[in-house]
Amino acid sequence: MAWQHKDLLGLRGLSKQEIELILDTAAPMKDIIGRDIKKVPTLRGKSVICLFYEASTRTRTSFELAGKFMSADTVNIAASSSSVVKGESLIDTGKTLDAMGTDIIVIRHAASGAPHLLAKHVKARVINAGDGAHEHPTQGLLDMYTIRERKGRLEGLTVTILGDVLHSRVARSNIWGLRTMGADVRVCGPSTLLPPELATIGVQAFTCIEEALDGADVVNVLRLQLERQKKGLFPTIREYARQFGLNQERLKRCKPDVLVLHPGPMNRGVEIADDVADADFAAIEEQVTNGVAVRMAILYLMMGGSGSGAVH
Amino acid sequence: MALYIKGGRVIDPANGINKIADIKIEEGLIAAIGDFAGAITEADEVIDATGKLVTPGLIDIHCHLREPGLEAKETIATGTRAAARGGFTAVCAMPNTKPVCDSQTGVEFIYNRAQATGLVRVYPIGAITKGSDGQELAEMADMAACGAVAFSDDGRPVPRSDIMRLGLQYAQMVDKVIISHCEDPELAKDGVMHEGYWSTVLGLRGIPAAAEAIMVARDILLAESAGAKLHIAHVSTARSVELIRQAQWRGVNVTGEVCPHHLALTDAAVEGFHTATKVNPPLRSDKDIEALRSALNDGTLTILATDHAPHTAEEKACEYNYAPFGISGLETAWPLFWRELVEAGVMTLPSFVAALTVAPAKRLGLPGGTLSVGAAADVTVIDPEHTETVTLENWQSKGKNTPFVGQILRSWPVTTIVGGRVVMRDRQVIG
Ligand SMILES: [Zn+2]
């Protein structure tokens, strides 16, 4: 099976087979990362541009390394959203990169739908590295990869996503991907940070963390943007930590073999307690490694590779 | 020499006419309605309207012509050409130009430009507050005296209740209608689409339906206490409809209008992030559309308007969050309304025609909206069988921002006559 789409803009609408293809392809990629010499010639002569309108060292570096490990030429462009408020610039920038013979553009943008706009105007393949509160598909995929690695499956698991769901693209990509793979998804957070109509999407919403954790196999803790408090979306960070912070006591509600995820960077002591973040049942560093593997898999598949895993 | 419109179905709700007849136009006025087969001579101009509908010229009480100041988006010349192509013989221009039309000078400018460059009649709406910034009343009495037909801070809802109250009191004094764009600015802040399932899926900031209904309720209460005439622009939510209906039962002088896109599209149209679907108020839910339909059916809402809001292609070719709100609506209004209201059996033909002619005219005290003998000969001929694919090829508005491109629509205006002069014939704008 080969990758059928021009772009990767989100997990909503991807089939189970397509998600499996990416996850299966990521496994041999992860082997490469474990080697002494992390370099295969697979994407030699291909160019990958990371076009980041929002700062994100983690995601950008992950994509950059993924490209480099496969011998692609990777270039970073940090564009500030403030200097590029108007979209002609996005379309123009895309066309310019296109004209330079770019094969793949990885875009991070504060506006939901920006990658879709870009994809419509360029011949290059576009990968969404996070757009507004919409999607962050590679994060969703690396979360799913990590869960599958630890649990051996996704189907039938209960996954609780905890925190600011309203503004979270990570939450949305997780919801679509996990639902497609047959997991039960719960979300939990203050009612002011939960978007409407979650039930229509097939997600159970909770404002009581104890209920949300009851019997959960996986807890995915979202990063809380502390400036939301300044905007009055919740009263104080102290109260948030007390009401919604994940700690050892609360984790007892979950299955004994619970797995804890966090997309990072963490606000320790706010959304997640120190001793939870560093515990064995947390896979937060593993997620980072898997992120590179998943991104290698995507770059590989988008450049015409098939899912046989023949990357040597 | 006379102009005859022959053999069409004449629908003139103002006079209770709905029959096959000829219309005779002389010296720019409706001379007679009847059967003139024998009286037509070779020198006369004849428009064959067999199989077509003949109505009073359509009147749009809510459009944005963008002149002065925003001529890249639209001018009075291009906007009125778009109106003519859409079958409209008169349009009311909202005051959110640059500068805002908030003085006698502004009102006179529009009349002068319309006289010099307009293809159809243009009636200026004055601002309620200076600069439409919601702080101090504009010179409403002065503007009324020189021809402002109503007052509105459309696009920038008056946030302060005390100022809105003063505006309504002042409008009552000069016997004009306040047209209110109802939206609680804080509640709607940064929102770009209807808050609901699709805003959740797309990760776009939602505008809750309550943002509109709250202001509808406030303005109704204020208008009630001031004894003023209130008209709610672009009603888009079920709750707003309910509030208007209850107020009318109580005897409050309140009316409301519905726009084509709010009937033809739901918020699901935003999927794909096409900025042509970004409009304020936003495209709402199925339930809201159902409420709008029943309100048009039972007469709670009596007026159809376009909220024609042209923008340049460049302004709309960007990320959804950054695009301006608005759809260029004059040229597709009739066939969209037709599909959603006539073909769907929501309105009878006479009440439908009334909502685009006599009802808006009466509400704002405009001339026109009738085919009475002696009235100015503003007439629209519609071919209910004419099918056309919406393209931008013959589009007259500078605003190419329409989500309806590619749609095949039935029933189109084919001839527009303003004061006895044909300004659109066979779908072609003349002059
Ligand atoms: Zn408005």
Automatic annotation (TrEMBL), chain A:
GO molecular function, one term: amino acid binding
UniProt keyword list: Pyrimidine biosynthesis, Transferase
Chain positions recorded as carbamoyl phosphate binding sites: R58, T59, R108, H136, Q139, G264, P265
Transmembrane domains' residue ranges: none
Binding positions for L-aspartate per the UniProt entry: K86, R169, R223
Enzyme class (EC, first level): transferase
Pathway: Pyrimidine metabolism; UMP biosynthesis via de novo pathway; (S)-dihydroorotate from bicarbonate: step 2/3
Record bears the keyword Transferase: yes
Pfam entry (one): OTCace
GO biological process: 'de novo' pyrimidine nucleobase biosynthetic process; 'de novo' UMP biosynthetic process; amino acid metabolic process
A GO CC annotation given for this chain: cytosol
Domain Aspartate/ornithine carbamoyltransferase Asp/Orn-binding: 155-302
InterPro entries: Asp/Orn_carbamoyltranf_P-bd (IPR006132), Asp/Orn_carbamoylTrfase (IPR006130), Asp/Orn_carbamoylTrfase_sf (IPR036901), Asp_carbamoyltransf (IPR002082), Asp_carbamoyltransf_Asp/Orn-bd (IPR006131)
Enzyme Commission code(s) on record: 2.1.3.2
Catalytic reaction list: carbamoyl phosphate + L-aspartate = N-carbamoyl-L-aspartate + phosphate + H(+)
Residue ranges occupied by any Aspartate/ornithine carbamoyltransferase carbamoyl-P binding domain in the UniProt entry: 6-149
Subunit structure: Heterododecamer (2C3:3R2) of six catalytic PyrB chains organized as two trimers (C3), and six regulatory PyrI chains organized as three dimers (R2).
HAMAP family membership: Asp_carb_tr
Physiological role: Catalyzes the condensation of carbamoyl phosphate and aspartate to form carbamoyl aspartate and inorganic phosphate, the committed step in the de novo pyrimidine nucleotide biosynthesis pathway.
Family, per entry: Belongs to the aspartate/ornithine carbamoyltransferase superfamily. ATCase family.
Protein name in the entry: Aspartate carbamoyltransferase
Native organism: Heliomicrobium gestii
Native organism taxonomy: Bacteria, Bacillati, Bacillota, Clostridia, Eubacteriales
The gene coding this protein: pyrB
TrEMBL record, chain B:
Textual note on the cofactor: Binds 2 Zn(2+) ions per subunit.
Pathway recorded for this protein: Pyrimidine metabolism; UMP biosynthesis via de novo pathway; (S)-dihydroorotate from bicarbonate: step 3/3
Obligatory cofactor(s): Zn(2+)
Residues in Dihydroorotase catalytic domain copies: 51-238
Binding site for substrate: H64, L65, R66, N96, N280, H311, F325, G326
Keywords: Hydrolase, Metal-binding, Pyrimidine biosynthesis, Zinc
Chain ranges of the Amidohydrolase domain: 288-423
Keyword hit for NAD: no
Gene Ontology biological-process entries: 'de novo' UMP biosynthetic process; purine nucleobase catabolic process
Sites where the protein binds Zn(2+) 1: H62, H64, D154, D307
Record: active site: D307
Binding site for Zn(2+) 2: D154, H181, H234
MF-aspect GO terms: allantoinase activity; dihydroorotase activity; zinc ion binding
Enzyme kind, highest EC tier: hydrolase
GO cellular component, one term: cytoplasm
Cross-referenced PROSITE patterns: DIHYDROOROTASE_2
Catalytic activity: (S)-dihydroorotate + H2O = N-carbamoyl-L-aspartate + H(+)
Task of the protein: Catalyzes the reversible cyclization of carbamoyl aspartate to dihydroorotate.
Name of the protein described by the UniProt record: Dihydroorotase
